[in-house]
Amino acid sequence: MAIPVCESNRYPRTLLRKQPSSDSSEEDRCSVFMRAPSEGASHENDLHDLPGGCSLGIMLLACLPRMAINMAWSAQWAVVSPLVNSSLDKNRWHSSLVDLVGPITGLVVAPAVGILSDHCTSKYGRRRPFLLGGAVLTIVGYVVLGQLKQTFFGTNNNAYIVAQHIRFGYASALIVCYVCINVGANIAQVAATLLVADVVGVHQVMAAAFTNMFGTLGDLVVALYISNADGGPSSPERDPSAFMLLLSIVMVTTVLPACLFVKEAPYVPCPSDFQWLRPHHAWCGAWHGFRRLPRQLAIYAVVLGLVHFGTMSYNISKGDFFGVVCLDGNSTNADKCNSCSMTNASYVPTRVELDGGTRSPVLPCDACVQSQRKYIAGGNFANGLLGLVADAVGLVYLGLLQPLVLRFGIRLVLLAATVPQMLFIAMVFAKSMLFAGVVVVLTALTGQTVSALQVPVLVSVIGFGEAQGLGIFLAAFNSAVCLGQLASLASLTIIRSTAQHGLTPLSAWLQILLGGVATVVAAIVLVRYFTLRIHVC
């Protein structure tokens, strides 16, 4: 079923030329490639002259890998990162360094993939080789990580007393798998996003909505799996092998159809393509991407960084905020009760660890005081039910995103989407579970909007076609997101280091407040400087 082209009278005359057919000679292709606005392209063609895109089925197949990629990111924060941090329990600063792996990897890998895929001349296309390679690398990380506990500690997961060098080997192997999954997921994410942008033609907003819907489904699958395990013997923290197998299966079943059925024409370079960019620029791609961003794209990159600073500020502080600030709980030694929940208070962990000859048993549930129980309940609420509701709301909202953009325009939709995250400022002062829950659910609209509209904004400015450098500019957006996340992690580190007793109420309170302030700044930037009208639907 072909997708009908959106009505041309909803948009001004486009600044982009029609892409030549695949039968055109190389000389024709090089002289009639689609021009970016800055290149002085003609205004003579209406929107219906733009590439109409693929069928709905091919569009869905191209968007499908985002489900597995989002599952990789969700698993990283919910399972892999806690496993790594728990293995480095005696080296807290090592744990802080490991948390930086994700953003730093995004800063280095994403621009490199964007540039290299733009120049790729493989007979299988420009994006699919990178998508498949990233998926394979991620699956290797999954498979190895799933077998690490069995390899190092055997079958006894509840009580193991091991030598220090074995624990060090386990931690080192975990970190290697963690980096492997990060690199693979970054490669796959950039390639998958570019593949969608290449094949859907003018239907960029619709495709972005489908892409984020599949991504949200992936988040929901991970959240439901972890919630169903509920700290029991089959939980990913105790036995990650089954969970890693699930992630591997989803990666194969989503990426393989896209690689097999979404066809790309091989790229034939011509002298006029990428005169300012070459493959050897890949390893400093973030700098080259930022340096070449047109004004409106640079403004959107600033908005992305500020909004993701706010999102990250909440995500890394939500357990402390609900547990300490809202419920007045106590985080001290609460990690020793982390297998106790308000609904499963009879479960008593039996794991015993040895540190230099001294056994340190995990406290049973009855040993946890009420303030610790409150802290655990707050963390469970933030990471469990609240996250599921927010994902569900975001999923519904994505179905409405395209009509909203068509009706109100991208600028107004973006401004409205920043309002929920600005309410972080009111949330930290209210200290109400109900109000905070409503605000957090609504912030799903903020994240989904700014993420989904990246490619439509990009294509509206630089145009379609092989000569536009889509990969490097999309990687610049990804780098802006990573910089926002790095700034958030750095600010939390500074806040915690200045606190007298570690995780005080002030840490989470101030971090989320900064996230709200950053979102206010993003809204001001949108109001004053963002004037783009997109030419896709």
TrEMBL record:
SUPFAM superfamilies xrefs: MFS general substrate transporter
One CC-aspect GO term: membrane
Domain of life, source organism: Eukaryota
Pfam family, one: MFS_2
Keywords tagged on the record: Membrane, Transmembrane, Transmembrane helix, Transport
InterPro entries: MFS_trans_sf (IPR036259)
Chief site of localization: membrane
Transmembrane stretches, start-end: 100-117, 129-148, 168-197, 209-227, 242-262, 297-316, 381-400, 508-530
Subcellular location, record wording: Membrane
One example GO MF annotation: sucrose:proton symporter activity
Record's bilayer topology term: Multi-pass membrane protein
PANTHER family: MAJOR FACILITATOR SUPERFAMILY (MFS) PROFILE DOMAIN-CONTAINING PROTEIN, SUGAR TRANSPORTER
Protein name: Aste57867_23371 protein
Organism whose genome encodes this protein: Aphanomyces stellatus
Gene: Aste57867_23371
